[in-house]
Every structure is written in C-alpha cells, then in structure tokens.
C-alpha cells in the first residue's frame, strides 16, 4: 500500500512495524501507548540501557500521525500519548499545523525535535531525553510543558508564542554551539513561565520576552562559566512577579506559599552575570536567599528597572558588582547583609520611595550602604535617603544623613574650605544640630563674663559720668554681632581686655555665620 492510501478510512499502512502499528491504533483511540518494561533502571530515558526495535518508532510516522493522521474511532478524540517510546530520526514538524493533543512521557529522541513556525493546541514533553528543541516562532494555543526533560544541545524558542503556560520545572539544559542553553528572545507567554529547579549550563537569554503573569526561577541553578552572563534578560516584561528565590524540594507543588517548617528547600543559585536592564515588573522582583557567584568582571545589573517592590534579600556577593543605576522602585525590602561592599555597589539615579528593612539595619549601616555606592562624593544618594526617612517621620535620622553628606563633601574641598567646614561641624554640625549654638553661646558668655569680672572695671569712654559696670552684659554685647546692647561704646579697653574683646567679637561672628548657613540649608530643604 502506498503512503496515504486508505488513511482516510483508518487502514493501517503496510510498512509499519509492530510498535508503530500499536501507536497508530492508540492514536485513533486517543489512548496512552505505553512501552515501558517495568524496570525503572531500564526505562530511565536518560540512562544508558538500550531500547530495541520493540520500543522504537520512526519520527516520520509520528509526523504523519500529527499532520495528516487517520480519523479517530467513533466516539473518540485522536491524540498522541506515548510513554517509554524511542523516536528514531529527526522529528520535523516545521511550519506544520498540528490539531491533535500531544503528550510524550519518559521518551527518548534520537535526533533533534524541529518545531519552528509550527502551530499546536497543547504540547507536553515530560521527562524526555531530547538532543535539541528547535522551536523558533512556534505557536501554541494552550501550554508548552517540558518538565524534567534533558536537552543536550539547548532549546530555541525565539519569538515563540505560548498561549497559556510554559513549564520547564526540573529541566536540565546544556548549551548549544553559540553558548546558549535557552534562547528565547522576543518570546511571549500568555500566563506563567515556570522554570523552577531548572539546571542550565549556558546562557539563558530572554531579551525582550513578555510574560503575562509571573516568571518563576525558584530553586533554579544557572551556571555559565564560559561567558559573561548566565541570565541575559534586558527589556523583560513580567506582569506580576519575577522569583529568583528558594523552592521546596520533594513537594508536590513547587510554586506558591512559603514551604512548611522542616521542608528542605533549594536556593536560587547563579554562577555568572545577571542582566535585567530596562525590565518592567508589575508586582515585585524577589531575590530571597538568592546566591550569586560572580567573577570580578560580572555583575547583577538592574539598570533602569521599574518595579513596585524589590526584595533584595539574598546572600552578599563576594565578588562582582550590583548595579541599580536609574532604577525606579517603590518599596525597597532589604537586609544589611545582602549588599556588597565598597566599590561593588553602584546606584546613581536609583530612586526608591520606602525602605522596608528585614532584620536590624541601623542608620550607621545604612550610611555605610550609601558610602559603598559612591566611590566619589555625590549628593544624590544622601538626599534620596534623607527624603525617604523624612517621609517616614524619621526627621532626626534624616538630619544625620544630611550631616553625613556634608562631612563627605568636606573631604573634597581645598584646605581653607575644609577648615571652615570643620568649624561649622564643631559648632552647629552644619546647622543640623542647632542646639549646639546655644551651648557655645552660653560657654563663651560665661567665660567672657568671668574674665572681664576678674580684670576689673575698665575706663569709661569720654565724659559720660560713671555708668555701672556689668561684665556679663558687656560680654553679651561683644558676642552678638547684630544686636547692640549699648555697652561696648561706654568703655575703653587696653591690653589683655582688648584682645579678649576682639576674640569674643570674632567668635560671635563665626557662630552667627555658621548658624545662618545651617538655617539657609534648612530653609532650602523645606
């Protein structure tokens, strides 16, 4: 019988093997075609046990069923459901339209699976061994499930359109000849993209990808020691949350609520750089317990990211950089021990509205956080932190931040200006501690009053009679540079009293000038 003859009537082609004939009939019946032996070691699709002709079907026959297969039996729906089957040859469905439901479990593919520009309803490959999945611009109305599969030469989903969910949970993906394990630039996923406990050995590329709900890499391990990036996802759009956080090990449900007490968890780990520049996230980016292993040249790049909440709660990277330049955050949820040290944190233009520290994060450590991000003095990080603290009602802490800004600025000034800065700091703390002015005034007034009292009554200044001598009032008149109490012009000073009067006048002017400078800063801030 020639190929195609009698197919519309459901007749079996003459050249089918016994395994293929059984698959053909199961397809018409919509039933599962299971060729497992019952021995777990032998049936492992990733193991080394050979599967002979009794478990082998040709990829050409699988394509025939899916693209132009026989009609379903009466009252049944045709579907391809295979378990423990070895598919020989290259499964090439490029450009085809596949209407039947497709689900293959525990199967081995001899060569690559080619699905570029093909159209499906739903495709499920579960725990299969696949040399490579080539599926650029593939279109599914429903799900594309690839959990627990192993891909030995990568996955390509460039510009793919997945109608509902894309599942890569517990998949193991090795890099292709370009160094990428998963190439999914421009991909669109209608609902969730779950790649929990994924193991990737190469670059995961999601440039300009769009995810309709959440993207979960809980418990994933991304390793790419070959090039700079392990996760390359600039301009990524996720309508809800990106999870780079732990997953429960051994549970029936990987995603969802916090695991119960005693449940073993697996962290998100990344060996290689992460690039999320210009990303847009509707709810949050979650780095809970994330662990990054960078080289000195690699970084966690969040340049110009926009997200309502950034949960920066991972382990402190020992090497590499964290870059938040131009990022826009509403709530910054963080831990003191999560941020890298000086020289490895960069956040010029980083804007956040609220600080939500998890655990102790005293102001001294928050100031060290700002200092670590500014190798050279820049006022913006200090002013941003002060504004956020003030908005939260922590005015005293906000003043401490602005005082730290002035002290940091002082170190960049020439010697004369630096000396003047020290004077302002010692006297009134650049105006942020105005109570010091009253203390200094009281000390100088008391010292001057005692000194003039011990020096005795000076001579009067001309024929003005004998006014009463009041050392305290005289010292106060010298200290106040603007207010005239009428005491200085009454008396003539000589010798040490003249030098003492000059010192009090000079100190009074310095004190008044520093108070005025501080008041000006306060008014400008207001």
Question: Would you kindly provide a written description of the structure presented here, covering whatever features stand out?
Answer:
The chain is α/β, with parallel strands linked by helices. The protein has a domain at 432-524: Helix Hairpins (Orthogonal Bundle). Helix content is 27%, strand content 25%. The chain has ten helices and 45 strands. The chain has a 13-stranded parallel β-sheet with strand order 1-3-6-10-14-18-22-26-30-36-39-41-43. Helix 5 (379-391) packs antiparallel against helix 6 (395-410), helix 7 (415-428) packs across helix 10 and helix 8 crosses helix 9. The longest helix has 30 residues, at 496-525. The chain is rod-shaped, with a radius of gyration of 38 Å. The protein starts with 17 loop residues before the first helix and ends with a helix. The chain crosses the membrane at residues 499-523. This is Oxidoreductase. Keywords: Membrane, Transmembrane, Transmembrane helix.
